[in-house]
Amino acid sequence: MHFFTIASLLAVAATQTGAQDSSWSKQSVPFNLVLKSHNATLDGTYLGACHEGAAIEGLCPYGKTPRPYEQFYFNTSMYRNSTSDDFQTQGLLTWNLPMYPSPLFVSLP
Predict the structure, then answer these.
(1) Which structural domain range is residue 24 located in?
(2) What is the pLDDT of residues 44-84, one digit of tens each?
(3) What does pTM read for this prediction?
(4) Long-range contacts for 17-21 (Cβ within 8 Å, ≥24 apart)?
(5) Helix H segments across the chain?
(6) What pLDDT does residue 17 have?
(7) pLDDT recorded at residue 39
């Protein structure tokens, strides 16, 4: 149950942040999310995107071998802070949902 709670919080934060600026122009190289735990069963387990409901995705444990849909990206954008007039960086944790049968994908927070 903890995985779903964390995933839901990340999704809400990403959605709220994304409403500020829709130009997430830079995407990091792909990386994996791996659990670090004192529990030997969970330690080293890869997290991947999983379907939780209508248009709702979450993070679920998938085992100790990485798979393509368990790759994540950090999409960033620069914006000007209205109070200090400085440029700052904000970002979204995303994954790429494949659109079959074509090679296209949709980047989802």
Answers:
(1) 2-108
(2) 999 988 888 887 888 888 889 887 667 899 888 877 777 77
(3) 0.62
(4) 17/90, 17/92, 18/92, 18/109, 20/79, 20/90, 21/77, 21/79, 21/90
(5) 2-18
(6) 42
(7) 94
How many separate domains does the chain show? 1
Asked if the model's pLDDT at residue 20 lies above 90, the reply is: no
- Strand-pairing partners, residue 89, are 78
Of residues 18, 32, 40, the one with CA closest to residue 90: 18
What one-letter code names the amino acid at 32? N
Q: What is the DSSP string of 10-40?
A: HHHHHHHHHTT-----EEPPPEEEE---SST
Residue 60 to residue 80: CA distance in whole angstroms: 35
